[in-house]
Amino acid sequence: MYKSYTMELCGRTLRVDIGRMAAQANGAALMHYGDTVVLSTATASDKPREGIDFFPLSVEYEEKLYAVGKIPGGFIKREGKPSENAILASRAIDRPMRPLFPDDYRNDVTIDNLVLCVDQDCSPELTAMLGSSIATCISDIPFNGPVAATMVGMVDGELVFNPTSAQREKSDLALTVASTRDKVIMIEAGANEIQEDKMIEAIYAAHEINKKIIEFIDKIVAECGKPKHEYERFKVPDEMYEDMVNFITPEAMEEAVFTDEKQVREENIKAIVEKLTERYETDHPDWVPFINDAVYKFQKKTVRKMILKDKKRPDGRKLDEMRKLSAEIDILPRTHGSGMFTRGQTQVLTVTTLGALAETQRLDGIDENETVKRYMHHYNFPSYSVGETKPSRGPGRREIGHGALAEKALVPVLPSEEEFPYAIRTVSEVLESNGSTSQASVCASTLSLMAAGVPIKAMVAGISVGLVTGETDDDYVLLTDIQGLEDFFGDMDFKVAGTHKGITAIQMDIKIHGLTREIVEKAIYRAREARIHIIDEVMAPVISKPRPEVGPYSPKIIQIKIDPAKIGDVVGQRGKTINAIIEQTGVKIDITDDGAVSICGQDKDSIDRAAQMIQTIVSDFEEGKIYEGKVISIKEFGAFLEFAPGKEGLLHISKMSKQRVRHVEDILTLGDRVKVVCLGPDKMGRVSFSMKDL
Predict the structure, then answer these.
(1) Could you write out the three-class secondary structure of 317-353?
(2) Could you tell me the EC number(s) of this protein (predicted)?
(3) Taking the model in full, what pTM does it have?
(4) Which CATH superfamily is domain 325-468+524-539 in?
């Protein structure tokens, strides 16, 4: 049955059509926000997937270029693999929804969002987040929703909600907050050094809007929702778990996990699994498939008890204590910049590469405001970083997400194109991993950029704060600088990056049904204390400010301005003039529509020569000014000189010498470079040059 529901959301109409499309999915919602249209569907398999110990959820966000009236570029005129923006949108939808499915649900679930039409003032990503929640809530798939999301910007110091395209362009904040009925469940932010109190204000202003959206979703579910289906639960047998605990003992499990060496802990757990396998293979073969899950459950209970009740961390640190920190620069002798940051058993090396502005990344997507990226941050997580063997198949969604988070953290402190006319790429190589590599890559990238001579405005550092909760909202413990085990068995990974002045990026992942305001506030301020310590005590002693100039192996770039009307003179017919300059000097030249000319090369003399050629081309000849030209043609009446590609003039035979010249060849030959003085226009209006009056 077709039903339609509407609400006013931040000054625009949100319309949800149920029963209009995709009737065979478990749940489907056709979402309209302004003129943005997204079809959101939720589908589940009939039976659980065998042989897995996790919930197989897949979230898709499909960008179709027809949504913005474009035909895909290239030879294959159809969309290919998801763009980075689509992957990041999928992750943003996944994170708040995943904790709301049952822990023991093993049926495959796919949440798909098909972007059909885009109004640039109404975010398709936000529309898809709301559509995913509604489609899942009205389906028969077990789900403890709804969840709602709101985007927040800040223009001229004022908060704006679900900002328009024009507002996003000048906003100092790009915040997305997802909430359940009572609590915040996901935070994603990029910010221009926003102070903590303002960030908290923005988060909870969005939370209030989310509550109203949830009331709207509740009405839809009440009228259109299907009964939730029963499912086959995957549960460790109580008798087996009790036998295992008595056999291994809590004291032995605590001893196994209580170490600051990840490899030692893994060996200890491996030995426990082997003992249990040997014990059950004969007497209880039906228990063997549950061994890994039972040991995981035992570990989790042990670690959480140690932290929550005993206030002990597995590696012996205090609750607010960071692991051993170190920073280095100039690891690699010939790269443009390199920096390495180590935090316990987490180690990241970041390498900076500088290039001409022509090397900026061009984007072909549905966001018409973002077509190029001048700064690119890439993150790689090889298997050896965790002591595993696995072939490299390129970056996955996690790597793309972590790279984007670090990029978001650093963009606010980068110099403008006018200040530093380079394309910039940083690549973070994770060399060792035991928790919070994304924030280590923020620190390593700051070091690398400064070592490369990039004049960043402030140093940026990042840290992750963890959480272990008890039975009540006020029974919890916050952990500064979580390692892998605390992330694995804990309830939260709250990543915050920023400068002394304020926050530049946040990403919050949780495994529970939301956080109280007290936890959010304390985590944000705990992260501030940690990052200030990292900047002042660890990074600044290594390099306190960016180097004053780029290194010897970096390209050198200067930028000059010309009259936009003269761009055609510099380019020449079919690029003949500019290509001649490039061929003669070996530089790279980029010209923008406003007349900004960037000249890039390894040799400063070549760059200066190219700049002089361009200035000569765009300048009119001045009487009394001395020029140097190359003889390119000889006639009976004189010689033609080339002062720059495409810029020529005539030196008449009568102006070559104070003595009478019978033949031009007596004075000049092809290829000679000669200095001449401009005499101004002659009687016929032509510009005249002279050697004899020099």
Answers:
(1) CCCCCCCCEEEEECCCCCCCEEEEEEECCEEEEEEEE
(2) 2.7.7.8
(3) 0.88
(4) GHMP Kinase, N-terminal domain (3.30.230.70)
